[in-house]
Backbone:
């Protein structure tokens, strides 16, 4: 951090009066002379003992980090807010500084620095803390501290009545609340979404004490969200006034409570403490190369955590949401392969100004013309971003440019920004501006066509200048029709993510109301509310779309073996899921719900493979006819049932799902000769085509040719889905875990030289395409 004294001016200031530096007010010490000043930017003073005091605004053009000569480097609280406190000794020069976290409209931070030759850094700090305690920023309420700068750490400035939790929420950070059985979660994230703090407070639940509830949640974090790759450190800590233990790991990162970070690997510190009645965990996550200032701030937040004495708590002002905070405030990092057009993240409900919703992205040339007019550039021309100097630096931050342009000496980069820059260019946006300008070495602009926003970046005498400009409304085209392939990609991406982690799926194109409905369904499927119980339902579901172009198109995720469907109603642009219902297949086909809780295909009186495919095709056809105009009509009421109807349908679906799972496992658990024959028949088939070991006996040449065309890697994903056997013969049906459209029907005999008598590779889409012909044949 470069520090310069200011241009000398006549010493003329009443040291008893407050001194104005833009939006900050500081008090000058009595008897000190002003030796330099720049209006609204900074002031230098000389003390009677040779001390030099500087107060100035500084743009964070480089990260704050301890140096070899640093003696103290920690966060503290002041009435004007949190600040980083440092002391140093370089030779005979001693110094103390206070860097406030508060940023002005230009992204600058106020620094107070006191230095002197041959002086004690601790004595300088004591003087400086008194001055820092008198700083005030315009329009800012004083922080809740008992004594300014009285000790290390940050003071709690937020309480959560639902849990009795108190902690420090840094200025400008978003705060999210969520409830899980026995757990209250509070998550904090800076505006640039480049770090995260999550606090979990546990209480006894379902026969488990608080320590057990917390241990299960910690295990879930390590299994689903923070996958350890290497243990970096372990230490004893004090957390919320209780003795605890802290572990820091280098981890592979996934969505954490629905919030995603713009990098795949990071440092995660989990600290936990408590007892059987109440326990607390704090998770801190940051990039391995994060600046020391951010690391100190995260540690300061952890140290601020406190728990009020146990009592009955009122409802939380954070408006809890079930299972997880619903949508992260930036696009998810490329952590796992998903279909084309993976769902970009939406901005979560939070306190503060309402975020701007990204609109449909117009063509780059049309945007370029608007940007040129906005910046007063008439010579803008498209350019390959690979040839632009800052593309690599942006790509390293997860902001790889999709398009580029040159407007004379000005370079333009079309990127998808993680948050709306109108809310401030701090955090990841500030880092992107710094690194892009350093790589470019000249003015540039980042353009987000979807958000209709431009970040114009240019160097200035006091650091970078970042102006956020707004493009006018897109008038280049009328409302575009929904591309079916794109819509299917979005729906299928949601299904695949939900099949891996339903909690993570809540962060992708899901409204708050729909997320609440998914949480209610999870509670019906599992009284403990374990969302992972829904994963195999979605994992084996077939995706179909209905009513595209209507005001409420429907994506159905139909599980053919259980004969149930998760119906999702989307907005008109197919951007977001607005409503959800879990429904048995019978009502979808216009029938009364099954009183005997049997999937529809099991009561058709046909051979199992034909009944299964035919039932799925009939369900698809019925939905196609009823929901051609979208949801909300009398023929397509899905997503609009009252609470009682919603619960009844989901409960019937749960019964069907449970029954299908029990039946599927019969082939594994049963000790009958038919079950043994079915297992042996499948092992023979899998051995030949999945493992390339031996040759399955009893297979026709026609069926063998069909299986030979199946990729080898798909064989490992087939799972038992249905089984029936009697009188020495058995039928086993297996479903493709990674390709729900595929299933294999295996017939086996308990007697004879080879258990395998026949096998068929079938597709549900084939039954859909030939429904009329099949209906004729089964009459």
Residues:
């Amino acid at each position: 951090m470069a520090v310069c004294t200011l241009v000398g001016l006549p010493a003329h200031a009443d040291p008893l009066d407050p001194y104005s530096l833009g939006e900050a007010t500081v008090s000058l010490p009595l008897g000190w002379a002003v030796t330099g000043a720049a209006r609204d930017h900074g002031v230098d003073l000389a003390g009677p003992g040779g001390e030099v005091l500087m107060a100035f605004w500084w743009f964070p053009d480089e990260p704050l980090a301890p140096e070899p000569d640093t003696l103290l480097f920690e966060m503290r609280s002041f009435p004007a807010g949190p600040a980083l406190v440092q002391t140093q000794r370089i030779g005979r020069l001693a110094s103390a500084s206070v860097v406030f976290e508060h940023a002005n409209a230009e992204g600058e931070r106020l620094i107070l620095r006191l230095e002197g030759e041959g002086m004690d850094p601790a004595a300088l700090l004591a003087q400086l803390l008194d001055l820092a305690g008198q700083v005030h920023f315009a329009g800012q309420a004083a922080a809740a501290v008992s004594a300014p700068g009285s000790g290390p750490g940050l003071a709690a400035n937020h309480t959560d009545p639902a849990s009795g939790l108190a902690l420090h929420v840094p200025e400008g950070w978003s705060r999210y609340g969520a409830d899980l059985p026995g757990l209250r979660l509070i998550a904090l994230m800076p505006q640039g979404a480049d770090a995260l703090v999550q606090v979990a407070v546990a209480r006894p639940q379902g026969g488990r004490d608080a320590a057990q509830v917390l241990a299960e949640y910690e295990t879930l974090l390590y299994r689903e969200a923070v996958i350890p790759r290497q243990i970096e450190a372990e230490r004893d800590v004090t957390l919320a006034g209780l003795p605890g233990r802290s572990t820091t790991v280098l981890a592979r990162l996934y969505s954490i409570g629905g919030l995603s970070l713009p990098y795949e690997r990071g440092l995660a510190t989990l600290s936990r403490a408590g007892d059987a009645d109440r326990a607390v965990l704090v998770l801190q996550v940051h990039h391995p190369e994060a600046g020391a200032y951010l690391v100190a701030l995260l540690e300061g937040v952890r140290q601020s955590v406190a728990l009020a004495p146990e009592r009955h708590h009122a409802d939380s002002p954070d408006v809890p949401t079930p299972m997880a905070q619903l949508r992260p405030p930036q696009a998810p990092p490329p952590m796992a392969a998903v279909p084309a057009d993976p769902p970009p993240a939406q901005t979560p409900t939070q306190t503060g100004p309402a975020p701007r919703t990204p609109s449909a992205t117009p063509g780059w040339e049309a945007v370029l013309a608007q940007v040129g007019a906005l910046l007063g550039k008439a010579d803008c021309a498209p350019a390959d971003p690979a040839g632009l100097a800052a593309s690599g630096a942006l790509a390293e931050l997860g902001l790889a440019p999709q398009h580029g342009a040159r407007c004379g000496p000005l370079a333009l980069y079309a990127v998808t920004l993680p948050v709306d820059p109108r809310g401030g260019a701090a955090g990841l946006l500030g880092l992107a501006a710094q690194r892009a300008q350093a790589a470019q070495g000249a003015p540039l602009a980042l353009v987000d066509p979807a958000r209709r926003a431009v970040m114009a970046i240019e160097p200035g005498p006091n650091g970078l200048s970042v102006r956020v400009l707004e493009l006018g409304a897109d008038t280049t085209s009328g409302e575009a029709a929904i591309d079916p392939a794109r819509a299917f990609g979005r729906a299928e991406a949601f299904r695949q993510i939900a099949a891996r982690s339903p909690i993570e799926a809540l962060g992708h194109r899901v409204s708050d109301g729909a997320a609440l409905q998914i949480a209610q369904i999870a509670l019906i499927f599992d009284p403990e509310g374990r969302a992972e119980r829904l994963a195999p339902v979605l994992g084996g579901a077939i995706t179909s779309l209905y009513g595209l172009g209507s005001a409420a198109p429907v994506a159905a995720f139909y599980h053919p073996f259980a004969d149930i469907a998760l119906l999702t109603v989307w907005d008109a642009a197919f951007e977001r899921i607005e409503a959800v219902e879990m429904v048995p297949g019978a009502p979808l086909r216009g029938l009364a719900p099954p009183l005997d809780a049997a999937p529809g295909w099991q009561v058709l009186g046909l051979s199992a493979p034909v009944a299964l495919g035919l039932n799925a095709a009939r369900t698809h056809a019925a939905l196609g006819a009823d929901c051609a105009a979208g949801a909300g009509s009398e023929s397509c009421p899905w997503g609009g049932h009252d609470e009682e109807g919603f619960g009844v349908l989901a409960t019937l679906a749960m019964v069907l799902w449970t029954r299908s799972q029990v039946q599927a496992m019969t082939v594994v658990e049963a000790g009958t000769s038919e079950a043994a024959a079915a297992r042996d028949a499948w092992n023979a088939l899998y051995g030949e085509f999945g493992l390339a070991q031996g040759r399955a006996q009893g297979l026709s040449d026609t069926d063998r040719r069909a299986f030979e065309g199946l990729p080898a890697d798909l064989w490992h994903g087939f799972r038992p889905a249905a089984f029936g056997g009697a009188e020495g013969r058995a039928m086993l049906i297996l479903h493709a875990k990674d390709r729900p459209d595929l299933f294999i029907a295996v017939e086996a005999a308990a007697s004879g030289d080879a258990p395998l008598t026949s096998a068929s590779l079938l597709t549900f889409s084939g039954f859909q395409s030939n429904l009329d012909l099949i209906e004729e044949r089964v009459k």
Remarks:
- The longest helix spans residues 643-669.
